[in-house]
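Hi, here's the filled form for the chain we discussed.

Project: internal
Contact: R.S.
Residues: 399
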Amino acid sequence: MSNTPQDPNDKQSVSSPQRDEDEPAAQDVVAAPSPDPSSEEADVPEQREEGGAAELRSLSSAEGEPSVEAQARPNVSRAELLDGRPEPPSDDALTRAYPAKPVLLPVGALGALILLIVVVTAVLLQEKQKRAVPLEDWEAAADVIREQAREGDIVRVEPVWADDPRVLLNTLRYDLTQQPMREVLDGYGRVWVMAGFNRAEKVHAQMPSEYVLVEAEQYGMVDLLLYEIPAELRPKFDFLEALPQAQVRRVGLRGTQVCSLWAENAWHCQRVDKFLNVGVRLREMGDDPRRCIYAPPIPDGGTLEIDFPDVTLGTRIEGRAGMDNWAIRSDRGSDTTFEVQLDGESATSLRIGKHDREFFPFSIDTSARAGEKAKVSFRIHADDFFDRFLCFTARIPAP
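And the returned structure, exactly as it came back:
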């Protein structure tokens, strides 16, 4: 560094601090000339971005020595000085200004994800259980039933969701209810039970105690049981079985229409109608598929009448009535009235709401007329008939 004073007005001489070899070249740092006090521009500083020119001016002094500011920042590049931008904030400053926010999964989405996992797991476990019973075991048990089955037999499968055996015995009648019930099974002569996973003990505990176990065999993982139903337990009269002998008509403001066309196991009025008919059907009633008399109400606020003449009465008439699962899911239609009459006199009635899931039981005491003949009638009415798929059962049980 030279110690010779420099003329402050000499624009050709610029003093700069001595640098090391690793510092930027001289042209990288340029000192601004000192302004002439007499000049018109003396009071107007050079228009640089704020901070850049001030830094540059502070590096030079009259003696050509670095200023205090320059000594405090010895390695400042020209690009940084002329840029004039503030130093980038530190990591701590950024953290305080922009704190990290945790990524939260909405509660609803989390619940849906958990539910999906549970459902998928349950389906996979059920599918694994289904396949746990070898098909040849079901086939071996089915072969025995096929060889020994006779009129009046019915088949149950445990667990009820197992499909393989029903495919193997597709010509037989099945009881598909969750639990064996006398009101369903008493009308048959024998009950075959195919119990997968060797559930013979569980099945036997669920069967009505009045039924007699006459055969029990094991075929691999399938237990085969055969029960006889004592004759004295069989109903005296089953209205489902007697439906082909019933008299059906529609009574409304336009008069009476007799439904005398028997087709597809149902009564029709003049022509076959997919929905408006009276027949024995397998319908989903609550949690159970049930055989019942399908009897939906008719249009125009009319009344559907189903008569069974000359029925020999016992001690009581019992049964159930309700809407199937299609009906209870629909908002169309109105409440429906179901009534039972004896010789034209009302014996009992039920009012069934649009969304009532229950398969309502009913019972009529006829012990005072036991042994007598009577006309038993069923009346179904709704102000609005749309989607009112009513189904009912009725029987005169054994004493």
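Let me know if anything looks off before we file it.
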